[in-house]
Amino acid sequence: MRMATRTDTPSPALSVADSHELIRVQGARVNNLEDVSVEIPKRRLTVFTGVSGSGKSSLVFGTIAAESQRLINETYSAFVQGFMPTLARPEVDLLDGLTTAILVDQERMGADVRSNVFDEPTAGMHPHDVQRMNGLLHRLRDKGNTVLVVEHEPETIAIADHVVDLGPGAGAAGGTVCFEGTVEGLRASGTTTGRHLDDRAAINGTVRTPTGALEIRSATTHNLCDVDVDIPLGVLVVITGVAGSGKSSLVHGSIPAGAGVVSIDQSAIRGSRRSNPATYTGLLEPIRKAFAKANGVKPALFSANSEGACPNCNGTGVIYTDLAMMAGVATTCEECEGKRFEASVLDYHLGGRDISEVLAMSVTEAKEFFGTGEAHTPGAHAILDRLADVGLGYLSLGQPLTTLSGGERQRVKLATQMAEKGGVYVLDEPTTGLHLADVEQLLGLLDRLVDSGKSVIVIEHHQAVMARADWIIDLGPGAGHDGGRIVFEGTPADIVAARSTLTGEHLAAYIGT
Questions:
Q1: What mean pLDDT is predicted for residues 369-384?
Q2: Is 251 helix (H, G, I), strand (E, B) or coil?
Q3: pLDDT tens, 16-32?
Q4: Rounded (10°) CA dihedral 106, 110, 114, 115
């Protein structure tokens, strides 16, 4: 078991009474967690950090929150429990000090006093709104709550009482606690998060020259106040403003039809319960053909949505139980053990792996697997290249799309659309869910798209993306009825120099001017 790095002075041994002030996790092995042990202080704000896929959600949601839910279910009457599937205890040696967990993610809301696991609460927020969210998190803590937050935003990491940093990498390269302690200790720890915590992008000093303009006239969608604006083409344009200022109304609701726009948002993907990155991107097709050719059988056998599907779960890998009185529950199929395929299909191999093992690979692992040797498949490798290019190297090929965050869904869509012929790309908050270390990779991708002749329009709150823009269109000055107006148009250098809007003030503070 790898021990976490600590730079703080060790606390004296706890008495039995003091031990009730902690949530203790020992030997957690959910998903990629490698025998993780942590002690989380109660009535404090603890932020869980680490690159995407490092194990943060597996620890907070898959282990701590899951066990809390299981214990709650055991309090129901025997009659009610008779209608409920038995929830398996998370793979962990010891979980001590748990209280009621209220999950507040990006899909549902709850409110109560006990323990609260906000999943990236600042996602999609303007820096001005992040400050307000930080105040809310502190007020929750000050009311006696134990607040656990999975977060990439440095401004929120900075206000933590306690930090747990997982890694060092994603997937099989992650799953260990690299650091526990204070924010200052994290900065000095040398972990990936610690090294990038104070990263600041420089203002773009060599902006590109537009090749044309996308004209919007008299836009009144939602709160827009008869807006006229020319969006430059052939450059990187960033649309900014506080939440509710009218950004999406301008971009998604006002760009004229027939403008050749490819819109890539974070919405759920239709049919996504059975879909995964391999099926959605078209990656499964060359993989199926490679397996079929190597084994002299039909490609349909290597699809969990076709002839090769497990008959018990119909290829989903889980059995869904819908409960009228509460949320439905998914339990692993006992027949295929979650592998989705019938047993005979798993006797066929490519490069020493069966189809379930290939679909369990991360994008990075599969890119290497299909790049050389017996499994060399150029068609698959090209798609994997694009998935890695958008920062999804940690994602499993067979991971259900329903488990992806909004930002991950958007990047899967982007990787798919990169192969299409489109003149204008519109992206909505592409940094959502990205670790600090991955933002620079995304910026490089946006630059490459523009340099290849595309026009890129990004709705974004991340200051690093603002700083890299060729042109900024800032809406506001406030939200709702107080927004809906263009309050600034110009280069990043111009908005910083003017400091006439909330965006300008926060961007200036970000770059340290």
A1: 96
A2: helix
A3: 445 569 999 999 999 88
A4: -10
Burial of 103 (0-12, 13-18, 19+ CB in 10 A): buried
CB atoms within 10 A of CB 87: 16
Is there a contact between 137 and 106 (Cβ–Cβ < 8 Å)? no
* Pairing verdict, β 22-28 and 329-332: unpaired
Q: How far, in whole angstroms, is CA 69 from its chain's centroid?
A: 23
Mean pLDDT throughout 99-112?
57
pLDDT band of residue 14 (cuts 50, 70, 90) is very low
All domains in the chain, ordered by first residue: 18-196 (3.40.50.300), 212-260+422-511 (3.40.50.300), 277-402 (1.20.1580.10)
Distance between CA atoms of residues 47 and 180, nearest Å = 10
Please say whether the beta carbons of 394 and 53 come within 8 A.
yes
- Spatial separation of the C-alpha atoms in residues 282 and 219, rounded to whole Å: 38
Condensed to tens digits (0 to 9), the pLDDT of residues 143-169 reads 999 999 999 999 999 999 999 999 998
Tokens of 429: 């908050």
Token readout for 46 is 């603890």
Distance in angstroms (rounded) separating the CA atoms of residues 84 and 79? 9
End-to-end CA distance of the chain: 45
pLDDT at 117 over 90: no
The pLDDT of residue 15: 45
More confident residue, 208 or 512: 208
Query: Three-class SS string for 44-56?
Result: CEEEEECCCCCCH
The residue count of the chain comes to 513
Of 66, 74, 68, 69, the residue nearest 90 (C-alpha): 66
Q: What is the mean pLDDT of residues 196-203?
A: 91
Average of per-residue pLDDT across 48-73: 88
DSSP designation for 233: E
User: In whole angstroms, what is the distance from residue 60 CA to residue 40 CA?
Assistant: 11
Nearest-angstrom CA–CA distance, 494 and 474: 12
Residue 189: both structure tokens together:
């720890």
C-alpha–C-alpha distance, residues 91 and 480, integer Å: 46
Q: What average pLDDT does the segment 48-60 reach?
A: 91
